[in-house]
Every structure is written in structure tokens, then in C-alpha cells.
Design goal:
homodimer; alpha/beta; FAD/NAD(P)-binding domain; Enolase-like, domain 1; 3 domains; seven-stranded mixed beta sheet; five-stranded parallel beta sheet; 10 helices; 27% strand
Chain lengths: 446, 446
């Protein structure tokens, strides 16, 4: 029987990061990644397969990134924790000393009548499934996207790029409502509409109709939308069957319960990524923030802690960003609504500026930043931003403020660097300006 | 005699920021900015006048940004500190209660023979001077730029865009040597050369020759470079005459001495921006980092502290960035050479990655990041980065790490957000990867 020092089940972002860091920090060479797929998809790249990349095979995570790890394609069906032996679906048995579960998540299958009709797809991360979607899309004319979160609007924008008629149906009153201010949500919706995407918010899909193939979706208000393809992107559920069967504890958000070192209730088994429970940076409560960037961080923590508990996961903040046309939006931490629900008294700082300076520079674009501070401590707890292609790193700057507990005073004096072509003017730099605005409001008790 | 609660001398970045913040935080409405120029140039935008903007008037800082401040165009020639009265060059007298000096800097005039020839220009921030340069440039064929710092390479790149033959002469062995690693400097030089700019490093200009107009520059090795225009960009000296004449203390880097609240040796007079002395964030020693972004931060500090000492300047870090073609570079804090000179034992972390993910995304570009850590404390003390248009905010993220004293462990676990079109992959995010590399080296004692 094959036996390995470290076995990682799952080869997407979290599992791959464990493999990288285990080699880097422990000089491990006896490690194997067992995964179901021959080719692993870049998870966040999936919507881009359908427009920007235009090919499933352009979205493959190169195995080389993991270094000299052994890769085994197969499905683990059980974990015998006492003897530390895994059984694969073909009956093969593999021993482990340390085990990391990175089994990911599955798309939510909403209980909508007609979900089983032809050309209705949830978004699985599997090569064959995504290829089938691509094929179905070739003959689709009108696509309905159910869910106006990041994945939904990215699919909508990409499908629109291919010339499809596209309608997004979102249950909440705005797309991206869970991470952005209403004002930024409206900007995103406006940008999508400008690009020809139909947006319907505050509506649930009641049923999916058609004889064999999908022909329409029916909304809760009775309205019917004709379509010949439906893409459902309304979230994921942790894939924990293997862990549950092995008797590991499962948390309230349905992830595998882990301690602050990514350890499970078994001292030799760790869990990372979408399959693992996450806890809020702000109050330690379980949260459903399942992102590749969160998975890789957990992968690093698990890898470092394999043999002794060294690095603590101080909690999940969550940083998101996306692009619609030439407008990008992003968010991190808590929205003011989430913060108030948690018991914070909040102060909001806002800034409107321009991405280059002077504003006459070619391609200068508007920037809007909205920061959420805890009134009592003055600390930054969330924010969102809208502005061209620098928004990804701007979100990371907001995260740096949050993770370091920076106050509105500290951020108002943040010693940023600036450049005419790369940033806003130092006189109206958005993060310092928004912090200054919050400070002013806090002092004036607005 | 006119008298004002607050008088600000100088209307560039630092002075303007004082005006903004004094209104915002003290509800001041009796304030005046006295400046020599009718129209104020965006300081960092100056090189872009000559290519990207193509017009001096496109680079004007709008007065509106300062709110309802009174603007007086004139030159203050003396400060009578006892009676708190200023005298202008036309004899007018103006009283003040609080005074902020934001008199800026003047370009260094190197002691090179021939500096007085026609078509030899230092870069003053004055509208008329810059207009004259623009005019001279119209008939120039070959331009020599003396100085390969940020301003020098920006002028070189912009002039090249207009089709001029351009040669940069830099005294040190690399352009940007004072802020970047040799490797990044070489990339910048390579990008400039690819765009047709001639680069000569490790050479001093001995003299500027010609009968009336400049005809050539002669290097210290005897080589002559034919040219019909010379632009000198080798730094600035603080403009402190007014302060010196008024008996205020001057520091070792030739700026007006200020305490940690931006106060001068007179309790009612503050100094901000290029005219004020700066002290290193790292060891408190005077440093010559004169940037608009530093000036605006000092402006905020001075404004807040006008009536009571509330905000402390914890020292100057310095964040720089620039663009050559579609390659951008930036840096913050200490280079390893500077750090070693200060007595640090350093660990360098490096990362090479790609700006988008998967790497097959259109317009994905290489990223290189180099971080400098203090080996003893593990804290980040500097870094530089090279990568397309997100480098400005990436430098700011490095600054956030420095200002918060983040260690290599904390940065290796930095909870960044990522997106296919906006950032590198979460598996190879450059800042976390470089921190991880440093950590690995520190542990292995490399």
C-alpha cells in the first residue's frame, strides 16, 4: 500500500497552496495531491471562459505551480482515521501521516421547479461540465442568469460580449447587495445595462418552464422571460461528505469545523478552503465567505502548522472585486448594514475623485470610495470602491487598513505615494479623503 | 491693513492642502493663500505637459479644490514675527494670526560650465517658464536630459513621444538607483531604450558647449553629445529665504526645521512641503524626500495642529512610482543599500508573477516585487515593484505594511482579495509571495 507523509485531497486553490507551502517551509518531498479532475480550473477564471478567454482550456491552473508534488487523479471515498488510511473509488488504499482536506464546494441547487430541464446549468468547476456549458451556449440566443452576485454579473457580462441576449434575475433589491453600498450597486447595474444586459432585481425565479429544453423562466410576480439557456450562480455549499462520514465535526455554516490553526477535530487532519468553516475577523462568528483568496491563505496556515501550531488564522475579512466593461468595483470587510447588525455604531466616510491627475490626463476615470468605521474605536471595518483597473489593489489597501486596525485618524494621514498616470492626486487621494470625511463626521457627531 | 486668521504662503500641493483641511477641521473662513503664480501647476504633472497632455494649460491645479479660500497673487518678501505682519513686494502689509509656510523648492542649478547657454533649462514649476520650455522644444531636435531620477526619465519618455532624439545622462550607475533595485533599474532602462531613448549612466556632464545656444554637452570622459536643448532634473533645494530672514531655524537638509507637529521654532508659524525639513520614519534623521504626496500629508498635519497639538508626524517614508510605456515601477521606504547603511541587517524577499490570472488573460503582464525586511524585528522597511498600471496602489500597499510595522509572517498571511482581471492569482500574489520568500530565507539564515 502506498503511504505518504502528507496527503492533500483536492487540487484547487486551497489544496495547491498547501502543496506549495509544505514544500517551501518543511522541505517535504513525500506529498501527494489526490483530485478528481485531470485538469484543474482557475476557479475565479470560470466566467471568463465564455467571453474574454473563449476556451475552457485557457483557464487551466498549471500543475507546475505546485512544484514537485505527486498528482493522483481519483476520488477518495472514505477516511479510516484510526489506521490513517484512505480508500479511493477504485478500491485503492493510500496511507497518510498528515491529511489536508481541500474538497471545495458544490454549487447551490435551488429548489426551483424545472431545474432539471435541458440547458439549465449550475456552475460546477469541472472541465467537462464547463465544456458542455460552452457547447450549449453556442446555440443559445437568450440566456437568463439567476443570481446577481459576482459570478452572476461576470457571466452576464461575458455572455453579452459574445452577443447573447442576457437577463440577470436577482432576489435582493440590488446586484452585489451583500458587499457594496446601494450607490455602487446601482453604478454596476447601470454599467451592465449600458452594455445591453437586462437586470431584474427584487424578484425570485418561481419556475423554469419548457417541454424538454428550457423555454422560459417564470418570476414570482408571474412575469415570464423567454430564454433557451439558464445559468444559476447563487452560491456554494461546502463539500463535506467525506469529513462527515469520517466523523469530523461540522460547523453551523456547514463547513468542516476548524480551530484557529486550520486543524479539525482530528489532530492529524486539517481542512482549508471552501470545505472548511470560516470565522469572522470582526466577531469570531461563522461566516460564509468562500473565495479562492481565502482558501490560499488557509492553505498557507495549514501547511505551516502541520507539525506544530505556529500560525494563527485571525479570522476571515473577505475582499472582492470585479470588472464590468471599463468600470471595476471592489469591497472588503463589513458593509454598514452588516456592521450595524453586529452591534457596531458606524461612521461612513466618502470620497469622490479621479483616477489620474491632473483630471485632464487621458483615460482619467471617476473614483468613488466608501469606508465604514467603528465609531467607538475609530477603526476601519469595511469599505468599497469603484474605479477602473486599480480597484483590486485599492481593495487590498482597505484590507491592510482593516487587518492592522487603522483608525480614521491614521488613514486620514496615510502616507500614500501618488503619480499622475497611476493614482488620484495627493490633494484628493480617495482613501485619505474618505477617512478625513469620516473623521469630520465623527467629530461633528453626524 | 488687511489681517487674516490664517495666512498660507505658497499655493502648491502643501499650501492647498492646508487650506482644505483648515476649512474642514476648524471651519475657518478667514484664510488667504498668497502665491506668486496666477495659475498653479500640478507639480507631478509637469513632465506630462510635453507629451501626454501637450499643453501647459492642461496641467493647472483647479483653485476650486481649495474651497472658499481667498487667493492673493503676490510675493511675500518679509515676515515681522513680533507684530505678525507680512510685507509683500509691492509694499502691501498683511497681518496674520497663524502662518503656514509652503514656499516649496527651487530646482538645483548644478555648477556646470555653460548652464547659462540658451535652451538649457532647469525645471521650475512656473507657468511662464514651462511655456518657454515648450516653445524651445518645438524647434529642438536632440534633447539631453541631465539626471535619471523620476523627473528625468519622465521628461525623456515624454520628449521621445514627441519624436525628439533623447539622451539621458545619469551620474550613478543606474537610473532610479536611489529608490529601486539594480534589477528594476535595468528593466526601466531597457524599456526606455526600447522606446528609443539613449541612456548613459555612471557619467557626469562636465560642461555645456555652444556659442550662444547649446550645441553639445561634454561628459567627464571627454565624450561630446550633440544637442540643441538640455533639461536638467537633478533635484531641488528648499526655498527657505523668507524663513531664514525671519530668523527661523534651518535644518541640516536645508529645510525649515519643524517639530513632529509641523511647527517651526515660532509657535504661530508652521512649515509644510518641500520647504520644510523631513525626518525619516525609520530613524528620525533628516531626509531629502521632497514629494507632493509628502507635502499634502504635512499640510493636513499642520492644519489640524494650528490651535492645539493633536496630530504627530511619525516620519517620512516616501512612495514613488512612474510609467515608461506600458511598464510601471514604484518603490517605497528603504532600499537594501540604505537600510544596511542605517545599520539594519536585512532580508530580501522576491516574487515574480503575472498581473492577471490565468496568465492567458489578455494584457497579462509580468510583475516583480522585491521587499526589504529588518531581520531582527521581521518588519517590512522597504520595497519596490514593477508591473503595469496597478503599481501605484501596490506601492501604497507596501507603505501600509511599513507604516503598520507588518512582519514577514503577517505579510505572508496577508488576506488579500484577488480577481482574474485585476490582480495576480491568489496562489502567487506578489506581496505575500515575496514575504514568504523572505521568511524562508530568514529561517534558513540565507
Amino acid at each position: 500500500m502506498e503511504k505518504h507523509e502528507l496527503v492533500i485531497i483536492g487540487g484547487s486553490a486551497g489544496g495547491a497552496q498547501v502543496a506549495i507551502c509544505a514544500q517551501e517551509h518543511h522541505n517535504l518531498d513525500d506529498l501527494v495531491v489526490i483530485r478528481r479532475e485531470k485538469k484543474v480550473m482557475v476557479p475565479c477564471g470560470i466566467p471568463y471562459i465564455y467571453g474574454t478567454l473563449d476556451d475552457v482550456d485557457s483557464n487551466i491552473m498549471p500543475d507546475g505551480v505546485m512544484g514537485k508534488v505527486k498528482i493522483k487523479v481519483g476520488e477518495v471515498v472514505s477516511i479510516e482515521r484510526g489506521s490513517k488510511i484512505l480508500t479511493l473509488s477504485d478500491g485503492e488504499k493510500i496511507g497518510y501521516n498528515k491529511l489536508v482536506l481541500a474538497t471545495g464546494s458544490n454549487p447551490v441547487q435551488p429548489p426551483i421547479a424545472g431545474m432539471d430541464k435541458k440547458n439549465v446549468y449550475v456552475v460546477k468547476k469541472e472541465h467537462s461540465h464547463l465544456r458542455e456549458m460552452a457547447k450549449a451556449m453556442e446555440s443559445a440566443r437568450h440566456i437568463v442568469v439567476i443570481g446577481g452576485g459576482f459570478i452572476g454579473i461576470e457571466f452576464a457580462d461575458e455572455c453579452r460580449k459574445r452577443g447573447h441576449e442576457v437577463t440577470v434575475v436577482e432576489l435582493l433589491e440590488h446586484c452585489l447587495r451583500l458587499v457594496c453600498t446601494d450607490e455602487l450597486c446601482s453604478r454596476v447595474e447601470g454599467a451592465l445595462e449600458e452594455r445591453g444586459v437586462n437586470i431584474i432585481t427584487g424578484s425570485a425565479v418561481q419556475s423554469i418552464g419548457g417541454t424538454d429544453e428550457v423555454e422560459f423562466v417564470q418570476l414570482d410576480n408571474g412575469r415570464e422571460i423567454k430564454c433557451d439557456m439558464v445559468i444559476v450562480g447563487i452560491g456554494v455549499v461546502p463539500n463535506t461528505k467525506l469529513a462527515e462520514d469520517a466523523g469530523l465535526e461540522i460547523g453551523t455554516m456547514r463547513g468542516i469545523e476548524v480551530d484557529e490553526f486550520q486543524g479539525t477535530s482530528d489532530p492529524d487532519i486539517f481542512a482549508v478552503g471552501d470545505c472548511a468553516e470560516k470565522y469572522s475577523f470582526f466577531n469570531g462568528e461563522p461566516v460564509a465567505i468562500r473565495l479562492a483568496s481565502v482558501a490560499t491563505r488557509e492553505g498557507k496556515i495549514a501547511a505551516i502548522n502541520l507539525y506544530s501550531r505556529r500560525w494563527r488564522n485571525v479570522g476571515t475579512i473577505g475582499g472582492f472585486a470585479t470588472v464590468v466593461g471599463d468600470m471595476a468595483v471592489g469591497a472588503a470587510g463589513l458593509t454598514s448594514a452588516q456592521a450595524i447588525k453586529m452591534g457596531y455604531s458606524v461612521v461612513i466616510g466618502e470620497a469622490d475623485t479621479v483616477s489620474k491627475h491632473p483630471g485632464t490626463m487621458p483615460d482619467a476615470q471617476p473614483i468613488r470610495v466608501n469606508l465604514v468605521f467603528d465609531r467607538r474605536s475609530g477603526k476601519l471595518i469595511g469599505g468599497c470602491a469603484c474605479c477602473a483597473m486599480t480597484v483590486g489593489e485599492m481593495v487590498n489597501l482597505i484590507i491592510a487598513g482593516i487587518v492592522n486596525g487603522m483608525t480614521m485618524e491614521q488613514l486620514a494621514l496615510f502616507p500614500m505615494g501618488t503619480h499622475p498616470q497611476l493614482t488620484a492626486s495627493p490633494l484628493v487621494y480617495p482613501l485619505t479623503d474618505a477617512a478625513s470625511d469620516a473623521l469630520h463626521k465623527a467629530i461633528s457627531n453626524v
